[in-house]
Amino acid sequence: MKVRITSDFWKRYQDIVRENMLPYQWDVLNDRADIRIEGERRNDDSIPTGKSHAFENFRIAAGKKEGRFYGMVFQDSDAYKWLEAAAYSLRNHPDKELQAKADALVDLIGDAQEADGYLDTYFTIEAPEHKYKRLMESHELYCGGHFLEAAVAYYEATGHEKVLSIARKLADQICLKFGPEPGKIHGYDGHEEIEIGLLRLYHLTGDASYLEMARYFLLERGKNPDFFKKQLKEDDLPAIFPDMGKLPDSYFQNDMPFLEADQARGHAVRMLYQCTAMADLALISGNEEVKKACERIWDNITEKQMYISGGTGQTAIGESFTGDYDLPTDSMYCETCAAVGMITFARQMLCLTGQAKYADIMERVLYNGLISGMDLEGKHFFYVNPLEVHPKTDPLDPGKNHVKAVRPSWLGCACCPPNLARLLASLEQYIYLKRDGNFLINLFISSEWTGSDFHIVQKSDYPWDGSVSILVENRGEAFSLGVRIPSWCDHWKLSGKFEVRDGYAWVLCPSGETKIDFTMDMQAVRVYANDKVSACAGKAAVMRGPLVYCMEGVDNGREISNLVLPVKAEFTENYRPDLLNGILTLHADGIRETSETKELYSHRKKQKTPASLTFIPYYAWANRGENEMQVWIREEN
Amino acid sequence: MKVRITSDFWKRYQDIVRENMLPYQWDVLNDRADIRIEGERRNDDSIPTGKSHAFENFRIAAGKKEGRFYGMVFQDSDAYKWLEAAAYSLRNHPDKELQAKADALVDLIGDAQEADGYLDTYFTIEAPEHKYKRLMESHELYCGGHFLEAAVAYYEATGHEKVLSIARKLADQICLKFGPEPGKIHGYDGHEEIEIGLLRLYHLTGDASYLEMARYFLLERGKNPDFFKKQLKEDDLPAIFPDMGKLPDSYFQNDMPFLEADQARGHAVRMLYQCTAMADLALISGNEEVKKACERIWDNITEKQMYISGGTGQTAIGESFTGDYDLPTDSMYCETCAAVGMITFARQMLCLTGQAKYADIMERVLYNGLISGMDLEGKHFFYVNPLEVHPKTDPLDPGKNHVKAVRPSWLGCACCPPNLARLLASLEQYIYLKRDGNFLINLFISSEWTGSDFHIVQKSDYPWDGSVSILVENRGEAFSLGVRIPSWCDHWKLSGKFEVRDGYAWVLCPSGETKIDFTMDMQAVRVYANDKVSACAGKAAVMRGPLVYCMEGVDNGREISNLVLPVKAEFTENYRPDLLNGILTLHADGIRETSETKELYSHRKKQKTPASLTFIPYYAWANRGENEMQVWIREEN
Questions:
Q1: What is the nearest CA distance from A236 to chain B, expressed in angstroms?
Q2: Of B399, B529, B595, the CB nearest to A531
Q3: Sheet strands (E) in A495-562
Q4: For the residues B440-461, what does the mean pLDDT come to?
């Protein structure tokens, strides 16, 4: 089965990946880009920002260069994510030059791999005696997992045997070193990811040892919370991350087994990568207990710990989940990588359950908290995706030193940019799903889905317009096509006969052609947060279709927290092809409340003056210089 | 001149100091109280919370006991602040038992003092080779300053010669060790306080060397920002506060000389202690440049960086000022000690300038952000004084791990409780001021002020009632009496003839009796924050007279952020002698906005239902168990 995206909106993003992000990131990883690298927090000089050095580390590990390792201990993963993104791009767009670069990188990785299969340039170069001895902080298996993902993707795209053989050699070495048997390491990595990689390698090869290894890592985690600390104590290398030992066990999801957890907790990206693999394991194994645990965590996140943008991680301290209904909008984290993790978790849950609610969240994250992580050209990136910024006061507060109003060119901890690239380049995998003989349309992205005996074409101007035309050519037996009814949509119409189940409108597609017109009412609506979310009390967010909107200072003047959206104000729409690569702006007659006094505290009532309010899609913010932004706006009678 | 407080409100506080706080704190400092000591932040096990050990450290330093130092490096200052509070209490209320305790403590301090005058139990016990070699973190002169303050107070209260001789011996040793001369240390303490102590000793003794020493410390600071780091590098003791070296120079007000600064910055208590001494220096020296610098910093704080409670320090990170108009109400610090520092700074500015605006702030802090630091019995204390608390979500967020909803019995870093005690016990010093032959009434605290040729009696039910009767008996020549017109007061009346100048209503008091009736309109009013304070946009605070009011969950139900104060709602008042030691509560017909849906984000409009709103004085919050609290409430048409 093959999917080809034709959507103007998303084709642009995929073109950006191909034309900008892959060449740009190749240069950055090769230390050839003339850019300024920033720490993801202001005033944090513990992050190496001199250069990337990612490819150079491989050259040194391979013995082709002299030198020392430079960068984060997990710098290798930047290269692997680039390779994975290149793989997806090559599958859609064969490109000899890109493939030559990727082949060269694969050769380099192969050269850096040790004879026994071990692969991690930091430990090969700097600490060969300490391999797998400091798993809390080493990220060795985290990097390994990213390589396995990249290798599978690159093999699937190009049939490149060597990359698969490097991957199997690495995976085999891991299977040899880890597991419940005596003499093996009874533990796991401080950062989940290897589990995803092993399961992908299992799906490709069918080799059950990879499945078993992943199952061990997933189900063993949290059974022995002292594992990390004990390992560190027994090893004599100085701490790589001196503060990491102070973090609670929950940071690593190491406080309890997944099957016992009710809440998402700890580092958001770690948590979501664990969930992604766990949901895949539930599907592969049919284990109901694992499935139920995945559903519990999913419900906890989406019903109690998720921002309206689909962002997760409420605190910068540990880049972590905090707890139910704690959703501050000015100090949140919402890391771009967590958005990636949320999308992959959603996709696995969708495969596992066939419920549209998972696709709803997948879409929410995709159109909002994911692509807010990059500028419109794919050359500047956010690590943190705030719901409001105050460029005048945020930089003063060390508790907000992670909140930036402008995207940096590159980040000292560069996990996010190539993660965005690989997700956008593989977007084809998220639109449709064939499950139990049924066909599901999960995302309304204009595209063609082709199988041996079917061809489905969907066309729309989504996300700007809610009319979707679907043409099904069925050359085989009748099947049911489920068209997702988005949860954001209060009114919709579907031509012809259908029945609603699991959040989909099901249409029977007999052999031959079936035409479906699906229309979603896409007027702007206000969204309110749960009564328990104190940060959003008295405020509304504005959404239109899947898009969360926001206000920026450049459109709305200074001190936008003084703007008010009257309860009865109606929205007008304006499609602006010239603005921010073409967006639909929303407008309402609002109020500005000011006292214009210089006093800090005053008895003087605030004066209300009319103010024209302009909203733009959240993903497009911070593309017009530094200015204020807010998603939640005060609402009044 | 002598002042005797008769105010029911404040006499109660002074009784609490005498009857509860001094005996209780004596027991705590002697490790005899059966209490739980808490770190000032949750999950911070770097704070020693096993016991106080403050007096025991002196016994060990004096060679009367074997053992190690225990507690914060500045634990000595807890004992000194207790002694200072005892001194003020003894001046008003002679008490043989208390004096015996204090005398014994003075003897112990004398025994712990080294032959050359050096006094600091940490270094005497643990690091005698490192005296004055790690001033950034050592707090030696900080502790010394607190001892000088205590000694002056105790000498003034009791005429105790020995305490003065210990103090002079210490001050002389400091003068010998520090200063611009070759061979002396060209530096100053990491935490300002010695400057206040030296100036008090100068005021008492007239010895100009103490003035010169204070002047040197004050004006030298910030001229050589590398001083601290250089000293630490040259000394080989492991860091006492390992993270302190990461703090910026501004934390210590070491980034620039005071005379060049435009903004309050760094650790709030440090900043305010510096200002207190600096304003005293301006008065003593008549130096206009120093005076102007004090006014600049004062204006910056009160016009741009102060909470409505008079609290200061917007961030827990470094317990610091952040910058103009950054005034988050949920993550602020507002340390109780900073309230003390703000009051002493205000008093010095008042002495320096005779402007009522300084007394306005003194009163604001006193009635709100200061006494909120203790419970109504004086046995539980806040380090941090929040403007809103959410007991369900605050504890989840590590960025708010300093925000507590209930006052602990004692704090591992116990600077605040004895600081409260000494300020409350010395409240007499803040009510009146004789300046340039004029008499000022700054606080409306029922009391008698007696001099050799005058007797002034003021009576009121302040802060509950705004009628103040003042009786002046003048047995000398005519003088002018200035009655402060509070800035919170929009309408007032004063009997007889007067003229208004510098924020005071001036009444000529000829020889003989003068009766003055001063009436301030005390109805509840709404206060609005400056347009630039985003945290307070759309919200009002409620004040009545000098008191800031707040809402607590116990009176207003759950999720109080959903409550709204209609613009037109009027307040009713209810004096409740039974409640919280007698308070006047405010009530208004408000609105509760809820959707009652379990969804995290919903299209469902919030329903408005009537809600009776109850406000209590902010200082009295958190005396009825754990519940929500907010000072700022949403306002709507």
A1: 21
A2: B595
A3: 499-501, 504-509, 512-520, 525-529, 539-544, 547-552
A4: 97
